[in-house]
Amino acid sequence: MRKILIIGNWKMNLNTSEASLLVHRLAERIKIHRDIEIVLAPTMLTLQPLSLQIDRRKFRLAAQNAYHRDEGAFTGEVSFTMLRDLIHYCIIGHSERRHIFNEDLPTIRDKVSAAVRNDIIPILCVGETKTERQDGETKQVLHDQLMSGLANLTAKEVGQSVIAYEPVWAIGTGDIAPPDKAAEAVAYIRNYIRDVFGTRPAQKIRVLYGGSVTPDIVSGYLEIPGVDGFLVGGASLNYESFSGIVESARKWQRRHAEVENER
Ligand code: 13P
Fold first, then answer.
1. Cβ–Cβ < 8 Å for 182, 165
2. Shortest-distance atom of ligand 1 to CA 164
């Protein structure tokens, strides 16, 4: 079984002392779980101090963004090369970057390549808008985002990556994707990987669900075949709800293991 992966995307929230306090509270509540990996994605500003504070057996760090060139005259940017010793992961192609900052498919492709080149695992976010869903374009959108995002990776690199399915209409709205729709999208993603890169990367790649995740939906979504965890926004800013998500995943995993053992 793939390890469950739970990522907290703090977006543009929490200054240095607030971030430090949240990590402190989370560390008190969350135990080390061998089969659950927990990743925090704070702002760029707080990555460095948090890297000194965190217990690395409990938490890993992700950046929310980085620039694809390694160095040079790119005012305001931070490169993957500069981040490589601080982080394990980087969120790439989040819908807020695609839609608010107009990041297009080639930009996202270049960022994915730069992450991999710097030994950082890309968390490639894909997902359709409400209009695209209503127009029946979900699969086409996923296809285009996967095809360009993964274009420069080898099959092995794809297998080591993470895809987060985040329907845009479910982000920050409380409007969770119905499990059957999420199941369809996740199956599409894995089938795409299998068809283009082969069976092994399709089995290895971790696929997450994101969009209004709360502790209540965790066990239901982990039942969906091919869902390996969550990319959490709002609920990751509160220590009770984020540790609640981890706890629900741990309980589900224990129950699941018992059922498997009885077979
Ligand atoms: P919410 O969990 O707040 O809907 O945000 C999801 C998200 O965008 C995570 O990257």
1. yes
2. 10
Give catalytic residues, as residue numbers.
94, 166
Identify which of 91, 230, 231, 242 to mutate to test ligand 1's pocket (most ligand atoms within 8 A of the CB). Answer: 231
Q: What is the CATH number of the domain that holds 252?
A: 3.20.20.70
In terms of Cβ atoms closer than 10 Å to its own Cβ (0-12, 13-18, 19+), residue 178 is: exposed
Mutation pick for ligand 1 pocket among 96, 166, 168, 173 (CB with most ligand atoms within 8 Å) = 166
Phi, psi (rounded to 5 degrees) for 75: -50, 130
219: its two tokens: 């066990």
**Does pTM top 0.85 for this prediction?**
yes
Query: Considering only CA atoms, which residue is closest to atom 2 of ligand 1?
Result: 233
Nearest CA to ligand 1 atom 5: 233
Residues of the domain holding 146: 4-262
pLDDT in tens, 98-154: 999 999 999 999 999 999 999 999 999 999 999 999 999 999 999 999 999 999 999
Ranges of beta strands (E only) in 65-113 are 89-92
Angle between helices 16-29 and 239-262 (to 10 degrees): 30
Q: Report how many domains make up the chain.
A: 1
Work out which ligand 1 atom sits closest to the CA atom of 171. 4
- Say which amino acid occupies 139: K
Q: Which tokens go with 119?
A: 């030994």
CA dihedral 197, 198, 203, 205 (to 10 degrees): -10
